[in-house]
């Protein structure tokens, strides 16, 4: 006797998540794609005033220097953040996988910033950059640190670097534990054999550690890339998008990353359709990056 | 020989201590300045406070302040995080189980769609979600904006993909014989899942709890949109940003509010450190 292909329990157990999935993801996703081609606004009720406008919202993006600027600085921020986080966290991982007395304490300490939300961390660092650093300057005798014009958050270029500092501090511990897990998987015999053969620390790093953690590296690069690209919370609390800067002859927010640009366009400039079109572009870039990442991963697996 | 090896680790040990202190320096800054008056902070943000008791006074001010709404936000954060976590764990694990145990094109298709949804960033659905939630309220009377129901539903929707993915992987490794034995003994499918399988999923439940717990507790953008600032239901990040953004920077109180937001997480971490780190590693390797 053949059983029913999908018993009642199948649908019963799936129903709640399917419901949430449809309400929260599927419908807004489809609506959003559609809205990006309309004159959608926050005051529209039940689509009464909705009109198709073709590609006008997308054309608007091209004419908007603030989006281009946000795109450029988001790419710069993402690259700097990826490099800084991965170098720092790999160095920390190498350090705490040695037989140090307090290695578990150090690991916990490096990890803790990751548990506190980006919003709160941003305010903490705003205080550090604006108040603690000038005071440290007085203490060390660097008078220039006290000048408000020299504060890291006072110029858009250095404020972007300040965001990288905070991002690195926030994520280094998390990425470190992934490297630690990978380093601890390396067979000890391999390291010992190399030691007996007289391989130097650097040589062991290059010929054993790095090749053995390659898989972890693809994971960490991807996580840091996506998280940096989507950064919003630290942006809000540390710089709020400021200070202002000039770009293509127009004054703009100097540190407004893409996620904040989308938010501000939709809700602060009251242009939901324009904000939505920006979000679609943002999404497509992320999909592209994910596809590239997956294909590189596949290629590597074949090589191995 | 042994002595020399010990000796060679002195430099890394010292380096680690220095880096450790450097990493914790921001926490030190928050702690010492939570115990100062505004004047002391502008005078010397790096020094130790003159009177540590001030920290309690500042905490009391934050806890009872009508402007900050800290105590009610704390409660709301707990309600939202705990309800979302319980529902996410129960609903995702049962969904993953039926997807694993019913092998068909349909169940594979549903699973693939769920997994693919993991790349969808919040930004692309956030504006339509607002309109859609508001219209659901107009049409059915079910209030989803500025309500617990709405935000918990949203967290289930955004958290379920990864959670189902993690449960799916783990459930596959549980031998089918266990369930067959239970069925022979007269267990109905739902009983089989909740009595036999659910307890076996404990390690992966831990991972899902940790990953979603850290995310939901700290999340800012989703509550900002669905709950808004300054309404009845606020989470801690909302309350902190509302307070830190709305005033001429009262750093003594802002840093105290931040300290109070950090304390529960740090305590939880100290108790469940291994658990949390393991969960984070398991969640990253997908």
What features would you describe in this structure?
- The complex is a heterodimer of chains A (304) and B (286).
- With 304 residues, chain A is mainly alpha-helical.
- Chain A is 71% helix and 3% strand.
- Chain A is built from twelve helices and two strands, in the order H-H-H-H-H-H-H-H-H-H-E-E-H-H.
- In chain A, strand 1 and strand 2 (250-253) form a beta hairpin.
- The longest helix of chain A has 32 residues, at 65-96.
- The two termini of chain A are 47 Å apart.
- Chain B has 286 residues and is an all-alpha fold.
- In chain B, 78% of the residues lie in helices and 0% in strands.
- Chain B has helices spanning 2-8, 10-33, 38-43, 54-64, 70-101, 105-116, 122-140, 148-172, 176-184, 189-200, 202-218, 221-226, 236-246, 251-271, 273-284.
- Chain B is globular.
- The model of chain B has no long low-confidence stretch (mean pLDDT 90).
- At the A-B interface, helix 1, helix 3, helix 4, helix 5 and helix 6 of A face helix 2, helix 5, helix 6, helix 7 and helix 8 of B.
- What is the H/E string of chain B? HHHHHHHHHHHHHHH
Largest sheet of chain B: none
* Major β-sheet profile of chain A: 2 strands, antiparallel
* Beta-strand percent range of chain B: under 5%
Provide the CATH top-level class of the largest domain in chain B. Mainly Alpha
CATH topology of the largest domain in chain B: MetI-like fold
CATH architecture of the largest domain in chain B: Orthogonal Bundle
State the separation between the terminal residues of chain A, measured CA to CA. Answer: 47 Å
Average pLDDT figure of chain A = 90
Helix/strand order of chain A, N-terminal first: HHHHHHHHHHEEHH
Radius of gyration of chain A: 24 Å
């Amino acid at each position: 006797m053949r059983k029913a292909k999908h018993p009642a329990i199948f649908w019963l157990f799936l129903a709640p998540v399917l419901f949430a999935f449809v309400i929260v993801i599927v419908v807004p996703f489809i609506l959003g794609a559609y809205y990006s081609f309309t004159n959608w606004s926050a005051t529209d009720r039940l689509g009464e005033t909705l009109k198709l406008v073709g590609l006008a919202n997308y054309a608007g993006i091209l004419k908007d220097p603030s989006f281009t600027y946000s795109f450029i600085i988001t790419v710069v921020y993402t690259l700097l953040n990826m490099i800084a986080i991965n170098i720092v966290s790999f160095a920390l991982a190498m350090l705490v996988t040695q037989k140090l007395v307090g290695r578990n304490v150090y690991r916990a300490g490096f990890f803790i910033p990751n548990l506190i939300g980006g919003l709160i961390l941003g305010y903490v660092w705003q205080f550090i950059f604006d108040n603690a650093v000038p005071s440290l300057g007085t203490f060390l005798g660097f008078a220039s640190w006290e000048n408000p014009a020299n504060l890291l958050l006072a110029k858009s270029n250095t404020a972007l670097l300040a965001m990288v500092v905070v991002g690195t501090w926030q994520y280094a511990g998390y990425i470190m534990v992934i490297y630690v897990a990978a380093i601890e998987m390396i067979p000890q015999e391999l390291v010992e054999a190399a030691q007996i053969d007289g391989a130097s620390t650097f040589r062991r790093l290059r010929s054993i550690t790095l090749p053995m953690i390659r898989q972890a590296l693809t994971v960490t690069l991807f996580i840091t890339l996506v998280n940096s690209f989507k950064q919003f919370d630290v942006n809000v609390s540390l710089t709020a998008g400021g200070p202002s800067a000039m770009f293509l002859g127009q004054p703009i927010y100097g540190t407004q990353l893409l996620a904040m640009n989308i938010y501000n366009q939709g809700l602060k400039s009251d242009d939901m359709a324009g904000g939505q079109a920006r979000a679609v572009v943002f999404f497509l870039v992320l999909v592209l990056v994910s596809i590239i990442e997956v294909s590189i991963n596949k290629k590597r697996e074949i090589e191995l | 020989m042994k002595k020399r090896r010990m000796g060679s680790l002195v430099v890394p040990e010292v380096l680690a201590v220095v880096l450790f202190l450097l990493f914790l320096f921001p926490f030190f800054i928050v702690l010492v300045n939570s115990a100062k008056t505004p004047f002391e902070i502008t005078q010397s943000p790096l020094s130790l406070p003159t009177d540590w008791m001030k920290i309690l006074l500042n905490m009391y001010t934050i806890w009872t302040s009508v402007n900050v709404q800290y105590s009610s936000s704390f409660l709301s954060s707990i309600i939202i995080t705990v309800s979302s976590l319980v529902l996410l764990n129960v609903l995702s694990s049962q969904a993953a189980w039926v997807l694993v145990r019913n092998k068909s094109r349909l169940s594979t298709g549903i699973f693939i769609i769920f997994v693919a949804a993991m790349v969808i960033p919040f930004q692309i659905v956030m504006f339509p979600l607002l309109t859609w939630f508001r219209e659901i309220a107009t049409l059915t009377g079910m209030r989803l904006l500025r309500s617990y129901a709405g935000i918990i539903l949203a967290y289930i929707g955004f958290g379920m993909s990864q959670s189902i993915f993690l449960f799916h992987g783990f459930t596959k490794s549980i031998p089918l014989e266990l369930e067959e034995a239970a069925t022979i003994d007269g267990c109905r499918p739902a009983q089989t899942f909740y009595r036999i399988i659910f307890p076996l999923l404990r390690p992966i439940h831990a991972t899902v709890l940790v990953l979603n717990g850290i995310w939901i507790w700290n999340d800012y953008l989703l509550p900002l949109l669905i709950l808004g600032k300054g309404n009845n239901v606020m989470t801690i990040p909302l309350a902190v940003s509302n307070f830190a953004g709305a005033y001429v920077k009262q750093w003594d109180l802002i840093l105290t509010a931040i300290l109070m937001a950090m304390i529960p997480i740090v305590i939880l971490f100290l108790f469940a450190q291994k658990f949390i780190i393991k969960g984070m590693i398991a969640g990253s390797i997908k």
